[in-house]
């Protein structure tokens, strides 16, 4: 039914399918420094926290009419450590630190997003 060459072709195709993840995954957050976290509630900016130079721990309690979230900033990472939402999906992963990563609590309409400022010059092309 299957020949040896079929398995080789399938194996090569499977390895090639991971190539975009390897290339794009390595470039996320590269060349960015001065990272900061933006906390938004229902689409409105609540707070901006610089993460690059942050040392120590800081706790932010966010209370809305939908419920509460407790955010912990530890060195250059940020995460939701407590929430009263039913599924607690927002608490996983525990901490984020790279530009482009985000945590979202849908029941409370809270979003934490890591952003960064690039050192590269902006290149405009037409």
Describe the overall structure.
The chain has 126 residues and is α+β, with helices and mostly antiparallel strands. It has a domain of 87 residues: N-utilization substance G protein NusG, insert domain (mini-chromosome maintenance (MCM) complex, domain 2, Sandwich). The chain has two helices and seven strands. The strands form two sheets. The chain has a four-stranded antiparallel sheet with strand order 2-1-7-6, with no helix packed on it. Strands 3-4-5 form a three-stranded antiparallel sheet, with no helix packed on it. Strand 3 and strand 4 form a beta hairpin. 13% of the residues are buried.
Number of helices: 2
SS content category: alpha+beta
- Which value, in Å, is the CA radius of gyration? 20 Å
How does the overall form come out from the CA principal axes?
Answer: elongated
Helix content: 10-25%
The top level CATH class name of the domain at 31-117:
Mainly Beta
In this structure, how is the largest beta sheet organized? 4 strands, antiparallel
Helix/strand order, N-terminal first? HHEEEEEEE
In short:
This protein is of the alpha+beta class and 126 residues long. The chain has 2 helices and 7 strands, in the order H-H-E-E-E-E-E-E-E. Strands 2-1-7-6 form a 4-stranded antiparallel beta sheet, with no helix packed on it. Strands 3-4-5 form a 3-stranded antiparallel beta sheet, with no helix packed on it.
């Amino acid at each position: 039914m299957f020949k040896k060459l079929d398995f080789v072709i399938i194996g090569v195709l499977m390895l090639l399918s991971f190539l975009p993840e390897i290339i794009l995954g390595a470039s996320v957050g590269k060349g960015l420094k001065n990272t900061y976290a933006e906390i938004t509630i229902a689409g409105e900016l609540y707070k901006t926290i610089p993460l690059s130079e942050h040392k120590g721990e800081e706790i932010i309690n966010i209370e809305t009419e939908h419920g509460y979230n407790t955010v912990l900033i530890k060195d250059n990472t940020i995460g939701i450590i407590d929430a009263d939402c039913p599924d607690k999906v927002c608490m996983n992963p525990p901490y984020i630190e790279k530009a482009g990563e985000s945590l979202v609590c849908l029941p409370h309409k809270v979003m934490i997003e890591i952003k960064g400022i690039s050192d590269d010059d902006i290149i405009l092309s037409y």
